[in-house]
From TrEMBL:
This is histidine kinase. Residues 172-184 have a biased composition (Basic and acidic residues). The modification 4-aspartylphosphate is found at residue 812. InterPro entries: CheY-like_superfamily, GAF, GAF-like_dom_sf, HATPase_C_sf, HATPase_dom, His_kinase_dom, HisK_dim/P_dom, HisK_dim/P_sf. Residues 151-171 have a biased composition (Low complexity). Pfam families: GAF_2 (PF13185), HATPase_c (PF02518), HisKA (PF00512), PAS_4 (PF08448), Response_reg (PF00072). The lineage of its organism: Bacteria, Pseudomonadati, Thermodesulfobacteriota, Desulfuromonadia, Geobacterales. Residues 521-744 form the Histidine kinase domain. It comes from Geomonas terrae.
């Protein structure tokens, strides 16, 4: 092949000029110097051969012209010994010109032929490339097409080789052209076959694309099967005149789709003796060339169609035959392998359609059941996609978020999410977005009963939710969404907090009850010892000269015993075992005389404010207990202030309803009179609030408090059926508010004070199981002039009373064998009108109910001063008691 100009496809002009100059030079040298008269054809022909290689016709004829001029120059001008007019030179020149022209014509024809062959070769190469591309597209569907393409490649290589041989052997040109024509015809036939196969493949691809597009678009199964059935007729061409897709249904064949039938007479065909039943039983493709030869088969028909031949293949779903795909021909037909491949391919598409349809129906059914389950759930349910967008919520979700409908809920939360504040548990700060349920679930977290607090800014609603959430995973365990289930647990949490509060109250009550029993037992035993100490000290004082140094020591003993007695009274008050005699009082009138004492108690640096309420209801309480209440609260306020400050005492009326009691279980509904003592002292720390009413608990320095003041207040309030509330913050002071039940009888009672003891001569029976107390009382009463009978046990008392009459019995309440009340009942049967005085450290409900003395009972609280006992004895003997 010659050299060509870049990008033009033509011989290079520069090379053409070079070849021309070299060839003319060589020719001139050969003809003028070497071979003047010999080798004419050879010398003129050889220089022209480069034109065959270069394939430049202009160069060929330029060189031929140049050689002709050179021949003329040699013949007529160069050789002087020759006569130019000589006929020989003319003939010789003509012969040389003829040779030049003949060689040029031959080379010209060879170049032309070579160009045509090259063009044909290029066309063949382009055709081969196109055939290879088409062969690659259909290689999966048709092996024969692939083999034909390989043969075409081999033939093309042979043509290339033949082209090279033509370049070397010009004499075989005609034979090669004939072969090329034959090969061209073969290629044409192959091209037609490839075109036909390509058309079939495109038709299949179009059918498959239509089916896939319908599947993606959610097309109905019936329409998809109609498309498949019509495509089967198109693929089979004129061979088939009808097609049907049938499915076995009991004893019948249900026609799922048909084409080419016109109107069917029946939508169901008989399964028995049908060709479909044979195909399904064999589970392979089969055909009948001429149905006339198979009278055992029942072939369906329509009013406009009668068929003579049938081709069918099983329709498989889940790997088992459930029906058949059938093609029919109007005339007897020989079905080929190509027909088999087509109908089997169509059956495969039908399987895809049916399985997809079944899957969609199952999915729709599952979705319907899921939605029904979601909307029937009382728990709020949210389903979100992988981007956190809401996919589905149920009606309970809207109710949970305080919306009227789920549409409004999703719209409002999507458009304005800031209307909802979400908090983790009891946190006061809104939870960051990444800590919310959906983002946590999308990160793969799972949780059960995670507590969140929610607040609607637009409505002000606040509630507590229990959340359970987790990710939704696909088959590859990749997160594709999340599900969140929430439940309103506001009432449950309130109930839990209330239960915890009640449990705390119960624990505190049980603890106080236990401490109270302990304190009561200690006080009882201690009181008996104080009676001995205080009584003997008083007796010793009466026998000692006033100027004696021993008198001062005895007085110190009395003062210590009295302080000890105060402690036991406070313990008994806390334990609610203090014996009291409540009276109906006007709280304002009773407290006002005490204010002077309170002012002295708290000191001059503290201002005392008194705020009595008008129209105050009456209360029923022991006046002595009221003294204790006010004194202890005032002392506590003074110590909390520790310097200059203010104490405020206020009274009032209060009605407690059921709603308040629901929030404060320790209260009981009703009408109450309140006594409030407030101070501006240092306040009480939150962690100490639960312990301030415990006995011996104090925050004061050592030696500055017994820890019984507030415990006494607590016991007195509880003993009188009241309640006490404390409000305090560190550095903000404290307020103690006491609620005492309103008295049913509003008439205040007059208090009778005990007068000075006198002397007497009556017979007094003393019953005391403590021997020291018994001897003390016996000696004291004898000194007062009384005739005394002493008994250490109830049995001894009964025996002594039988011997002589007795005017008064002074008995302990708690004793072995029998208590003081039972002893009195025994004695009074034998001596009606007998008078009694009961003594005890606490009453133990023998002569009192919850510490309140029974009507007509004369009682002396241990420890007592002998003068008080003497006065009580004289009063009972003279007047029958208080």
């Amino acid at each position: 092949m010659g050299l060509e100009s870049k990008g033009t496809g033509r011989p290079s002009p520069v090379l053409s000029v070079a070849i021309f100059l070299v060839a003319v030079g060589v020719m001139a040298y050969l003809r003028l110097f070497l071979f003047r008269d010999t080798l004419i054809t050879l010398t003129y022909g050889l220089p022209l051969l480069p034109c065959l290689w270069h394939r430049d016709l202009r160069l060929l004829w330029s060189m031929a012209g140049a050689f002709t001029v050179l021949a003329a120059l040699k013949a007529f001008w160069v050789l002087p010994d020759q006569n130019p007019e000589d006929f020989y030179e003319v003939v010789q020149w003509s012969f040389q010109v003829t040779n030049i022209v003949a060689v040029g014509v031959a080379i010209h024809m060879i170049i032309r032929l070579t160009e045509r062959l090259a063009k044909a070769n290029r066309d063949l190469a382009a055709s081969n490339t196109e055939l290879e591309q088409r062969a690659e597209e259909v290689v999966r569907q048709n092996r024969e097409i692939h083999e034909q393409a390989e043969e075409l490649t081999q033939q093309n290589e042979e043509l290339t080789q033949q082209t090279e041989e033509l370049t070397q052997q010009s004499e075989e040109l005609q034979h090669q052209e004939e072969e090329l024509r034959q090969q061209a015809e073969e290629l044409q036939a192959q091209s037609e076959e490839l075109r036909s196969a390509n058309d079939e493949l495109q038709q299949r691809e179009s059918m498959l694309g239509t089916i896939l597009a319908s599947l993606r678009g959610g097309g109905r199964g019936e329409r998809l099967l109609d498309q498949v059935c019509n495509s089967l007729l198109s693929l089979l061409g004129e061979t088939a005149g009808g097609a049907a897709i049938v499915q076995a249904s009991g004893e019948s064949l249900l026609v799922l789709s048909h084409a080419g039938w016109g109107e069917l007479t029946e939508a169901q065909w008989t399964f028995d003796r049908s060709f479909a039943s044979v195909i399904m039983e064999r589970d392979q493709t089969g055909y009948v060339d001429d149905l006339a030869a198979r009278p055992d088969l029942i072939v369906p028909s329509s009013p406009k169609r009668k068929f003579r031949s049938i081709l069918a293949t099983p329709l498989r779903v889940d790997g088992r035959p459930v029906g058949a795909v059938e093609a029919y021909a109007k005339d007897p037909q020989h079905w080929t392998e190509e027909h088999f491949r087509i109908i089997e391919w169509v059956a495969a598409q039908c399987t895809v359609v049916i399985e997809r349809t079944r899957a969609e129906e199952s999915l729709r059914d599952s979705e319907a059941k899921l939605k029904a389950a979601l909307h029937s759930m009382t728990d709020a349910v949210l389903i979100a996609d992988v981007d956190g967008r809401i996919v589905e919520v149920n009606d309970a979700f809207a109710t949970f978020h305080r919306f009227e409908s789920k549409e409004e809920c999703t719209r409002r939360l999507r458009e304005c999410p800031e209307i909802l504040d979400v908090f983790l548990g009891d946190s006061q700060d809104p939870a960051p977005p990444e800590q919310l349920a959906v983002p946590r679930a999308l990160r793969g977290e799972q949780a059960t009963n995670a507590l969140y607090s929610l607040h609607r800014r637009d409505t002000g609603d606040t509630w507590m939710g229990s959340y359970s959430f987790g990710p939704i995973l696909d088959a590859a365990d990749a997160v594709v969404g999340s599900v969140v289930v929430a439940r309103d647990v506001t009432e449950q949490m309130r109930a839990i907090r209330e239960r915890q509060h009640l449990e705390s109250q119960l624990f505190q009550s049980q603890k106080m009850e236990s401490v109270g029993r302990l304190a009561g037992g200690v006080a009882h035993d201690f009181n008996n010892m104080l009676v001995v100490i205080l009584g003997n000290a008083e007796l010793a004082l009466s026998d000692v000269d006033p100027a004696s140094s021993i008198r001062e020591r005895l007085q110190e003993i009395v003062r210590a015993a009295e302080r000890s007695a105060d402690i036991t009274r406070q313990l008994l008050a806390f334990a609610r075992k203090q014996t009291i005699a409540p009276k109906v009082l006007d709280l304002n009138a009773t407290l006002e005389p005490m204010l002077m004492m309170i002012r002295r108690l708290i000191g001059e640096d503290i201002d005392l404010a008194w705020k009595p309420a008008r129209g105050l209801w009456r209360v029923k309480i022991d006046p002595g207990q009221l003294d204790q209440l006010l004194a202890n609260l005032a002392t506590n306020a003074r110590d909390a202030i520790g310097g200059v400050g203010k104490v405020e005492i206020e009274t009032g009326n209060a009605s407690i309803d059921e709603e308040y009691c629901a929030e404060h279980p320790e209260f009981t509904s009703g009408e109450y009179v309140t006594l409030t003592v407030s101070d501006d002292g240092r306040g009480i720390a939150r962690e100490k609030m639960s312990s301030i009413f415990e006995p011996f608990y104090t925050t004061k320095d050592v030696g500055k408090g017994t820890g019984l003041g507030l415990a006494t207040v607590f016991g007195i309030v509880k003993q009188n059926g009241g309640f006490i509330n404390v409000y305090s913050e560190p550095g903000e002071g404290a307020t103690f508010r006491i609620y005492l039940p309103r008295a049913e009888d509003d008439a205040p009672e007059t208090e009778h004070r005990v007068v000075d003891p006198g002397r007497g001569t009556e017979t007094v029976l003393i019953v005391e199981d403590e021997e020291a107390n018994l001897h003390l009382l016996e000696n004291y009463l004898r000194n007062l002039g009384y005739r005394v009978l002493a008994a250490a046990t109830p049995g001894e008392a009964l025996a002594l009373a039988e011997g002589e009459p007795v005017e008064l019995v002074v008995t302990d309440v708690v004793m072995p064998q029998m208590n003081g009340r039972d002893l009195a009942n025994r004695l009074i049967t034998s001596q009606p009108g007998l008078k009694f005085i009961f003594m005890s450290g606490y009453t133990a409900d023998v002569i009192a109910h919850r510490g309140v003395l029974d009507e007509g009972v004369n009682f002396v609280q241990k420890p007592y001063a002998l003068r008080e006992l003497g006065a009580k004895i004289r009063s009972v003997l003279d007047n029958g008691g208080d």
